[in-house]
Design brief:
The chain has 380 residues and is α/β, with parallel strands linked by helices. 40% of the residues lie in helices and 14% in strands.
C-alpha cells in the first residue's frame, strides 16, 4: 500500500496482442480510487527494435521493464532460457516495487515467468483468461499452470470458471468477468478510405501463428494458406515469437502472390481494419484467438485454421473451421456467414471486463484477511 492508502497493483504485459487486451484493465485500475497502477513491460515488447515497448510507454508510465528473449533466438529451448531469465528478473522487480497484487493474462512465457516469481516470492497473483482451452505451442499447459499459481481468478466465460474450480481452486476467488478483448470495441470506427487503401483494400487479413513445429513445417503450412487466398486482396500480419516463426516469415517473404505485409498494428487500428474488412464481405483467416473473440463481436467473419484454438469457445455461424489444406480453407471462406451483424450471444461478455476486474481487485485487497489467500489449499 502506498502513502495515500492505495493498493499497488502491478500489471504485466509481454506482447502487443496481450497489451491490447490489458489496456482497458490498466485504465480501470488507474481510475479506481483505491488502487495505484504499476505497469511492467516484459519479454516480446523489448525484442529489438522494441516498437511495442514504445506503444506501452506512450500510454502508461512504466514501473519496470524486464527483458527475456534475445533477437534472433527463436525456439523452445531458447524459450526455456528466456523463462529462467524472466523469473529471476521479476523477483527483483517485486522486491523493488513491493506490489500488493500482480496481474497477468493468458498463457505466454512472460505471464508464466511473472506468475512463477509471484508464487515463490509471496506476492498475491491474479490471472485473467484462465480456464480456457487452446492448444497453441505450450499454451494449454502454461495457462493451467498459471491458474494453479494464482490466488484470484478472472475467467472470461462460465465454462472456463467451471474448469478452474474443478482444478481445485476456491470458488469464492473465481470471478467471471468476460474478456477485456470486448471492452471499448463498439467505440472504434472502421478504417476510413485512406487508411484502408494504404493497406491495399484487403478482403482477407491473414494472421497465422506458429504452433511449435519445425520451421519447414510451419513454412509449408503458411504457403498453403497463401495459396488458398491467392485470388483475393490479402494483408498478412507477422506471427508472434513462438518457435516456428522463422518458417512462417520465410513463406511471407517469398510469397508467390502480391500481398501487403505489416509487422503488426495497434489494437484500435486492427479492430478498425476488421470492421472494415467485415463490412466489405471479407474475413480474418488464420489461427489467432482474435478470430473467435474480437472478430465475432464486431461482425467480421473468420476462418479458424488447424488446432491452435482447439476447444476454445466461439460464436456459431461466425467462424468456420478449416484444416491446413487449401481446399478446406477455400470451402470455409465460402460458408462463413454474411457480414453486417455481430454475434448476438457472444460467450465472452458484454464489454465491461476492465471495471469489473478493478472492482474485484479492490474488494479482495480491501479485506482484512487478503494475505490469507497466499496460503493456497486445494478445494477438494
Amino acid at each position: 500500500m502506498n502513502e495515500a492508502g492505495q493498493h499497488k497493483v502491478m500489471v504485466v504485459t509481454g506482447t502487443r496482442a496481450e497489451f491490447g487486451l490489458l489496456k482497458p484493465v490498466m485504465h480501470a485500475i488507474h481510475a479506481h480510487p483505491a488502487l495505484e497502477l504499476y505497469v511492467v513491460a516484459a519479454g516480446s515488447h523489448l525484442v529489438q527494435p522494441a516498437v511495442t515497448f514504445r506503444e506501452v510507454k506512450a500510454e502508461f508510465a512504466i514501473a519496470d521493464s524486464i527483458p527475456m528473449q534475445t533477437a534472433g533466438k527463436v525456439g523452445r529451448l531458447h524459450d526455456v532460457e528466456a523463462l529462467g531469465k524472466g523469473i529471476a528478473r521479476f523477483g527483483r522487480s517485486y522486491e523493488m516495487n513491493q506490489p500488493d497484487m500482480v496481474v497477468v493474462l493468458g498463457d505466454r512465457i512472460e505471464a508464466f515467468a511473472a506468475a512463477s516469481a509471484a508464487s515463490v516470492g509471496g506476492c498475491l497473483l491474479a490471472h485473467i483468461h484462465g480456464g480456457d482451452r487452446a492448444e497453441g505451442v505450450a499454451d494449454e499447459a502454461m495457462r493451467h499452470a498459471i491458474t494453479k499459481l494464482a490466488h484470484v481468478h478472472f475467467p472470461a466465460t462460465n465454462s472456463s470458471a467451471k474448469r478452474i474450480v474443478k482444478m481445485g481452486e476456491q470458488a469464492s476467488q473465481v470471478f467471471v468477468v468476460g474478456s477485456p478483448a470486448i471492452d471499448g470495441i463498439d467505440a472504434i470506427n472502421p478504417l476510413g478510405d485512406g487508411a484502408y487503401t494504404e493497406l491495399g483494400s484487403p478482403d482477407v487479413v491473414v494472421l497465422m501463428h506458429p504452433i511449435g513445429r519445425e520451421d519447414e513445417q510451419e513454412e509449408a503450412a503458411m504457403r498453403t494458406v497463401l495459396d488458398a487466398v491467392s485470388d483475393r486482396r490479402v494483408l498478412v500480419l507477422h506471427p508472434n515469437l513462438d518457435p516456428g516463426r522463422r518458417g512462417i516469415m520465410n513463406a511471407i517473404e517469398s510469397a508467390p502472390i502480391d500481398v501487403q505485409v505489416r509487422a503488426g498494428m495497434p489494437r484500435d487500428q486492427f479492430v478498425g481494419l476488421l470492421k472494415r474488412v467485415g463490412s466489405e464481405g471479407g474475413a480474418l483467416v488464420g489461427n489467432s484467438s482474435a478470430g473467435l473473440i474480437e472478430a465475432a463481436a464486431i461482425g467480421c467473419p473468420s476462418v479458424d485454421i488447424g488446432d491452435r484454438q482447439a476447444g476454445r469457445e466461439r460464436c456459431d455461424g461466425w467462424t468456420a473451421h478449416a484444416n491446413e489444406s487449401a481446399e478446406s480453407i477455400r470451402s470455409a471462406l465460402k460458408i462463413v456467414c454474411d457480414p453486417g451483424t455481430a454475434c448476438s450471444s457472444h460467450p465472452y461478455g458484454d464489454g465491461n471486463s476492465g471495471p469489473m476486474i478493478a472492482r474485484h481487485i479492490a474488494e479482495v485487497l480491501g479485506t482484512a484477511d487478503a494475505s490469507r489467500l497466499l496460503r493456497k489449499r486445494c478445494a477438494y
